[in-house]
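Re-running the complex after MR caught last week's input typo. The corrected sequence lines follow. Everything else is unchanged.
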Amino acid sequence: MTPHPDPLPHRESEPLNGMRGVWARTDRWSLLVVGVALLLALPVLTVFVTALQPAGAVWRHLADTVLTDYVGNSVLLMLGVGAGALLIGVPAAWLTSLHEFPGRRWLEWALLLPMAIPAYIIAYTYTGLLDFAGPVQTLLRAGFHWTRQDYGFPEIRSLPGAVVMLALVLYPYVYLLARAAFLDQSVAVLEVSRTLGAGPWRRFYAVSLPMARPALIAGVSLVQMEALADYGTVQYFGVGTFTTGIFRVWYGMNDSTAAAQLAALLLLFVFALLVFERWSRRRARFHHAGNRQYRPARLSFAGRWGWLATVACLVPLLFGFLIPAGQLTVWAWRTAPHVVDGRFLALLANSLLLALGAALLILLLALLLGYGQRLRPRPLVRWAVRSAGLGYAAPGTVVAIGVMLPFAALDRSVDAWARQWFGVSTGLLLSGTLAALLFAYCARFLPVALHSVEAGLSRIRPSMDDAARALGSTPRGVLWRVHVPMLRGSLLTAVLLVFVDVLKELPATLILRPFNFNTLAVRAYELASDERLADSAPFALAIVLAGIGPVILLSRAIGRARPGYDAVP
Amino acid sequence: MSLPSISRFLPSVCGLLFSLITAPALAGGEVNLYSARKEDLIKPLLDDFSKQTGIAVNLVTGKEEALLQRLQSEGANTPADLLLTSDAGRLAAAQQAGVLQAVKSDALTARVPARYRDPEGYWYGLSVRARPILYARDRVQSAELSTYENLADPRWKGKICMRSSDSVYNQSLVAGMIAHHGEAKTEAWAKGLVANFARPPKGGDRDQIKAVAAGECDVTLANTYYLGGMVNSSDDAEKQAAAKVAVFWPDAQTTGVHVNVSGAGVTAHARHRDHAVKLLDFLTSDAAQRWYAETNNEYPVNPAIPPSATLKAWGEFKADTLNVAKLGELNPAAVRLMDRAGWK
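Corrected-run output:
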């Protein structure tokens, strides 16, 4: 893995005539990729267009009162959750991928489990346990005969509390990408550093970590975008962020324009972050230089150190999964007989099929955009693909409205056209159908798949493409016959990540779903938002259980990945 | 999972997905409902309606603003015949947005009191919720309580738990205060109230009640059906917490207890207008009104129907007579006022 010059400079076969500008050099691949990317960016563009209308006096009011809180809390939340996810995810990945210790084999996949728990659900369960009226504090008071003034207990429903909750369920993104990167690192480099006298810590800090940087940055940026988009947790904890502000202005003050402007501001901020991220690694390339790697032998931790490693990996698992899932199980045990009825199987089927359909669709789109970007690494193509991924940082409701408005407009014009020419009304073709919902999922979760596919592609040496092309393959042939087989692990990761995300998705599903169509997430939310947490537990638990299967599959795929070939991100 | 196998079963997945959206059709036709009431709090009634009339009801639930947005963007092609919300202000907003139409029926006029419906019939209230003061039985005497305004008195410093101002219940309450006392006075009151908070606002209504029961604070505001739900909960801890809390009906001598309604209106472009009116009639019928009371501890909008036993135990109260549409109109002002008062 060495810095490599720009991967495909000579692929630009068209004349580089500066006078003729960008459009003169377009071709089918660029057009296709830019077209698809812009289509997926439609919801985000809708937000910006809505934001262009003049807003009333709301901004003056916001600036005078709550705006500084929104900005401050959002930034702290993003930084805190990012740091938390790194602190949990990276050491866990380093331990499980390069070392041997008791329980390593099952911790490897178990560490992914928190991913299956929706963030707002973990927030509800911990509040139930830790707030003043919860069992922990009640026991403390009873045990020591304390009253409220006698002791200090960290308040769970606060900004730090929200940071911890989100970090606990989001760290698996970092863990997953970091682990794949560590497994993938050339053992030769590690051995060279060893022969040069570097100890294990130094090898970690000076060699492994810098080499894993693209994967870590990809993971952290996913985590941070997800944290910025969170609504359920911060709203419940009473922490004012951009997201809660958007809904407060929209619902409470009836000002959808100002809400769109707040959303646009949030998206611009994320866009600036993405630009910065690209810029920070503008020159570095991370391909494997050698053509032979074998799996690094795991370092064995003996005795006490081994158990210490086990405990270190057990902690995030305990707090991110075992405790909340245990609480859910206790609740579900009590309430399932009352709330689970004949509709349960339909809910499960709806959730699974929707998640699977969306995951496959998004995978194909990510593959198209990722490969198109590799084939035509031009600014226009890159920016189009970047903007398609912005939807991930917007609250799901905002993306959903961004889908609803253009789709309804399209339906209206088709309807008007059909009435005029054929005298028939076509009614609503897209609005209120699963197609609109699937499109919203694509706009929102594309980056999850794209990061994975891009990371995988970046580790396939450009000389592979060159060799295949020299042997007469078309660009499409290279994708299907060379890249896809080599990317199996990355593609599986992408499918499963999106699958779990869609399974948990709530706001877009809630707004865009057709008549008489419910999912597990909708049902869990309806009961939870009615403050019937225990009643919502069976459905939340079903989401978690449905997500566990894919998580285990995912982990096994990574375990099987061979460095350099089955490149998993 | 290789790609060829994915592409093999993709068509069947799509086929299954689309077969799921075909709605069941009954002989008596259908009516389409956008409901901000959760499925659990409306579906049993709709099933009864279908049984009685043979009219199938197709349902989408969601947040009211989102449903309103959906209704607006779908325009004349909307499939929705009826919009049901859990807040009168949103119905007034829908009316202003031009997505509702006025309907009249003798049953509706007779059963729904004037202050719980639109004068022209654009929307009708279906059930009433009240937001009284709840207090800890062992630490507060009911004689110490009098009005909402009184909660801003410094004697309650550090003793009040409150939900966030993001909650539409609090927004609606403050809107009612503005209607009665004007903005300046209400703002001063809100500042005093915020100064008395035992902790920053957080959690839902049930969390406030639990906090009072556990001794984190002495007094809070909550909707009656949350306390009712806890009294009848399957969870013993919730039951015990509810037993430690009592209801006080404020403003008995003045403006009355803050109330709001859930209600519904027929959409401007309803294709099944008559069915929609039939459904409205049904939702205000004795059986349906009793169901609201018994199942969710809401107050029936029809004064002829008695409240549930749980609610009766808390006594009679004088309800605010303000037309509930006013609350929606003043909602934006209320939110801004709470921002200024530092009510998180």
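None of the earlier attempt is carried over here. The domain at 340-569 of chain A is CATH 1.10.3720.10 (MetI-like fold). The mean pLDDT of chain A is 83.
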